[in-house]
Structures are given as structure tokens and as C-alpha cells.
Amino acid sequence: MADNVEERTRECSRIAEQNDAFRNRQAGGGQGQWVWTQAIDAEGADFLRACMQAVEAYDDFTEENDPFGTHEMGFMEVAGKKVWWKIDLYDRAFEGGSEEPTSLAHTRRVLTILFPSDY
Predict the structure, then answer these.
(1) How many CB atoms lie within 10 A of CB 83?
(2) What's the DSSP call for residue 49?
(3) Residue of 70, 107, 72 whose CA lies nearest to 87
(4) What does each C-alpha distance from 5 to 47, 84, 117 come to in angstroms?
(5) How far apart are CA 24 and CA 52, in angstroms?
């Protein structure tokens, strides 16, 4: 059982590293895309830019908001509005979940910026 726990911990840590790199647009984050909801888009280009900058700068991960340690979701305030972001891991064709989430060759990331009411 310990091996499985240790293996899962290593996998979560690797996913967190990749998610952080993707979110910060650095090497090692793999391929994917950033998207946002219509409600975020309706706030205008300046608001969207502020959201993107806040996502890149985000580092408020705690055991409460990141229980698995994968850095896949964040909660913040931008221009006085609560904003969330979420990273999902897909297969290379974006048709379903990745069966090899730590493999950059087999996984594509989608980072979505949204309001809580969009969820």
C-alpha cells in the first residue's frame, strides 16, 4: 500500500509542476490552450488581461483548496470580482481525459478562467 501512496504522491507532485509551468507559460508545461467563459469575455479586454496576469501569478495553494497538491484550480479576486481558474487534463485530441496525466506527449491542458456562477 505504501508504494501506491508514494507513487500517487509523486504523480500529483509531477502534475503540479507541469500545471505550474503551463500556467506560467514556461517549458515543461506541455501543450494546450487557455479559454474563458462568455461572462469573463463580456467584462472586456482589460479585465481579461488582468485575469490572465493573476492566474500566472497565483500561488495561494493550501491543503484546503488543493487537497491533492496538483495545482489544478485557483480562487482569486480581480478588480473586485471573484474569479476562478481550472486546469483540465485531456488526451491529445481533446476528446476525453488523459490516461497518462504526467506524460506531456499524451496530455493536453485546458486552462479555463471563469466566474463562480459559470461553474
Answers:
(1) 23
(2) H
(3) 72
(4) 41, 29, 35
(5) 10
Reference 23, options 87, 78, 116, 81; nearest CA is 87
Please identify which residue in the block is written with the cell numbers 504523480. 11
Q: Which residue has the cell 484550480?
A: 73
Sheet-wide strand order for 108-114: 31-36, 108-114, 81-90, 73-78
Which residue's entry shows cell 473586485? 80
User: Is the overall model pTM greater than 0.85, yes or no?
Assistant: yes
Residue range 52-103, pLDDT digits in tens? 999 999 999 999 999 999 999 999 999 999 999 999 999 999 999 999 999 9
Kindly tell me the sign of the dihedral angle through the C-alpha atoms of 46, 48, 50, 52: negative
Cα separation of 31 and 25, whole Å? 10
